[in-house]
Write a structure and sequence with these properties.
The chain has 302 residues and is an alpha+beta fold. The protein has helices at residues 6-11, 48-57, 107-116, 132-138, 199-216, 236-242, 271-289; strands at residues 17-24, 36-42, 62-64, 71-73, 81-85, 92-95, 98-102, 141-142, 145-146, 151-158, 163-168, 174-175, 178-179, 186-193, 249-250, 253-255, 263-265, 298-300. A hairpin with a 2-residue loop joins strand 15 and strand 16. 38% of the residues are buried. The protein binds flavin-adenine dinucleotide.
């Protein structure tokens, strides 16, 4: 979708928004898949309510992208524009055991910055790509921890009230790869409370998690992490592996040989290839185990 209405284009600079025309989302996603649309880069939070009012008044649909590491985006010209927060300086401010983090901050850099300030707890998130905003939305987690456990406050644009608000941690529910935020709420910043630990101890935990990832995940390949959520008490990867599906492909969309729940783009896979592979695997798992696998990857298909 192209923003060519002169009224919108003229209003953007004052709202602190930069328009990038015709962005290929394949270049903004870790899967390397996705069509083209206009991207609006937001440089100041205060302009967001007016920006969204403006887009709505002119009937311009939109979606939020963070680091694009959990997204499978459709092919071709896309029927909505994409909003992305620009990275601020500094990304993280430490105050005792609290870390105030901008949603656009890189998640891995946040984990290491906190570690260097003797704040731990997030060791499992090392190696999870993307932004802190995306991690909050997804309640990212690994190796027995999830980011939601450390959230004390979230600053967000709430679509329902059309304004920026602050929610306390206990007003938000964080479940396995699911949160109570409304689909069109936009995370802007978070206050985390983290356990104090000596840097050396945190580093040892980080090294263990890094090693676990390196030995089990296809880290050099284009993926979106796990495609499916684990059903209660089971492992989606193990079920797919038991069916002997590692290496199965549709065009360049392929199930990783290393980790059966990682589907990789081994060349120039289209969204259609990847979605066909996902649907095929869901059907086979359903037939064999009577389990309906749910997507962990967020699919933006039209
Ligand atoms: C190699 C690899 C390993 C991974 N390992 C893990 C893992 O161990 N655990 C895990 O949980 N995930 C993992 N992931 C998935 C992914 O990295 C996480 O879900 C990550 O937190 C997504 O963040 P993002 O900024 O890239 O979000 P995006 O992919 O950009 O977006 C994901 C969703 O969040 C929304 N979103 C993004 N930013 C905002 C915002 N500011 N406000 C509102 N909504 C927003 C988007 O609209 C979309 O719905 C892995 C991915 C890869 C490629």
């Amino acid at each position: 979708m192209r923003i060519d209405n002169p009224k919108i284009v003229a209003a953007l600079p004052e709202l602190g928004v930069e328009l990038r025309s015709g962005c290929a989302l394949a270049e903004l996603t870790s899967l390397g898949i996705g069509g083209t649309t206009d991207l609006l880069r937001i440089k100041k939070h205060e302009g967001i309510p007016d920006l969204l009012d403006l887009l709505d008044a002119h009937g311009v649909p939109h979606r939020f992208i963070g680091g694009g590491s959990n997204l499978l985006v459709g092919d071709g010209e896309l029927p909505w524009v994409v909003l992305q927060l620009a990275k601020p300086e500094p990304e993280v401010v430490i105050d005792g055991t609290f870390a105030q983090v901008d949603a656009a901050a890189d998640l891995g850099r946040t984990v290491t910055f906190c570690a260097k300030n003797d704040l731990g707890g997030m060791e499992g998130l090392i190696g999870v790509p993307g932004t802190v905003g995306g991690a909050l939305r997804m309640n990212a987690g690994a190796y027995g921890m999830q980011i939601g456990s450390y959230v004390r406050e979230v600053k967000l644009y709430r679509a329902a009230g059309r304004k920026i608000e602050i929610l306390k941690g206990d007003q938000i529910s964080f479940e396995y790869r699911h949160t109570s935020f409304a689909p069109d709420d936009m995370m802007l910043a978070v206050k985390l409370e983290l356990p104090s630990k000596p840097f050396k101890e945190i580093l040892a935990g980080i090294r263990i998690c890094n090693e676990k990832r390196r030995s089990s995940q296809p880290l050099g390949q284009k993926s979106a992490g796990c495609i499916f959520k684990n059903p209660p008490g089971a492992s989606a990867g193990r079920m797919i592996d038991e069916l002997g599906l590692k290496g199965l492909n549709v065009g360049d969309a392929r199930i990783s040989d290393r980790h059966a729940n990682f589907f990789v783009n081994a060349g120039s896979a289209s969204a259609k290839d990847m979605l066909t592979l996902i649907a095929d695997v869901r059907e086979r798992v359903h037939k064999a185990f009577d389990v309906e696998l749910e997507h962990e990857v967020v699919v933006w298909n039209a």
